[in-house]
């Protein structure tokens, strides 16, 4: 998606060769006008699949998942929690997820009240790197007997292998901007 690529080139910075920082519009300050364009584009790519729920993981996926739901007829948005708050007294589905940024493993949790066998789910996340978060979310949907209709990432770093791993496992994966490498202070895109 050209608009997003241009925005990453304009406002994104790289940290070494592995991490891209886009705090000014996606990960700290949120550009809602841009999110609306991204949500519309996600709907263009996944809107024909009969999706009735969007699933993401706290915290950075929540904003874009919420705006995207507007374009999917206001389907419910569920976000997995990374820690068990003492308000989560009901039973939950849990899946281990290794954090890309922290290197620690946490359990992604969703209450059994909010995922079920009738769900046709679109998984959305801000970044797709090694695919750990998306695979964990897919695991939660499948524990509930639901269907993963697709996985949408805003920014994919293809060189970290997550999309290949997820496609090899049979999932439909599509990302709005695909980074092929980060080298000498420059970000390179597919296409
Ligand atoms: P994965 O689980 O695919 O390895 O990594 C995806 C998760 O790690 C996303 O939820 C995102 O929050 C975080 N992440 C991965 N790579 C980056 C990056 O380059 N920049 C930022 N800001 N977050 C990232």
TrEMBL record:
It catalyses: XMP + diphosphate = xanthine + 5-phospho-alpha-D-ribose 1-diphosphate. It holds the Pfam family Pribosyltran. It is an enzyme of class 2 (transferase). Its EC number is 2.4.2.22. InterPro entries: PRTase-like (IPR029057), PRTase_dom (IPR000836), Pur/Pyrimidine_PRTase (IPR050118), Xanthine_PRibTrfase (IPR010079). Xanthine binds at residues 27, 157. It comes from the Bacteria. Keywords: Cytoplasm, Glycosyltransferase, Purine salvage, Transferase. One of its GO terms (molecular function) is xanthine phosphoribosyltransferase activity. It is found in: Cytoplasm. Coiled coil: none annotated. GO terms for cellular component: cytoplasm. Pathway: Purine metabolism; XMP biosynthesis via salvage pathway; XMP from xanthine: step 1/1. Belongs to the purine/pyrimidine phosphoribosyltransferase family. Xpt subfamily. Homodimer. HAMAP family: XPRTase. This is Xanthine phosphoribosyltransferase.
């Amino acid at each position: 998606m050209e608009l997003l690529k241009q925005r990453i080139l304009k406002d994104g910075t790289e940290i070494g060769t592995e991490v891209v920082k886009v705090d000014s519009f996606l990960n700290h300050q949120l550009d809602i006008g841009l999110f609306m364009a991204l949500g519309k584009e996600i709907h263009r790519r996944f809107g024909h699949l009969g999706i009735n729920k969007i699933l993401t993981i706290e915290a950075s996926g929540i904003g874009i998942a919420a705006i995207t739901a507007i374009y999917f007829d206001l389907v419910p948005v569920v976000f997995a929690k990374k820690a068990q708050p003492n308000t989560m007294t009901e039973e939950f589905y849990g899946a281990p997820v290794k954090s890309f940024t922290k290197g620690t493993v946490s359990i992604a949790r969703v209450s059994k009240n909010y995922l079920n066998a009738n769900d046709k789910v679109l998984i959305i996340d801000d970044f797709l790197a090694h695919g750990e978060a998306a695979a964990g979310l897919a695991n939660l949907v499948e524990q509930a007997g639901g269907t993963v209709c697709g996985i949408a990432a805003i920014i994919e770093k293809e060189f970290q292998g997550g999309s290949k791993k997820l496609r090899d496992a049979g999932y439909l994966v599509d990302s709005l901007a695909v980074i092929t490498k980060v080298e000498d202070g420059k970000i390179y895109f597919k296409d």
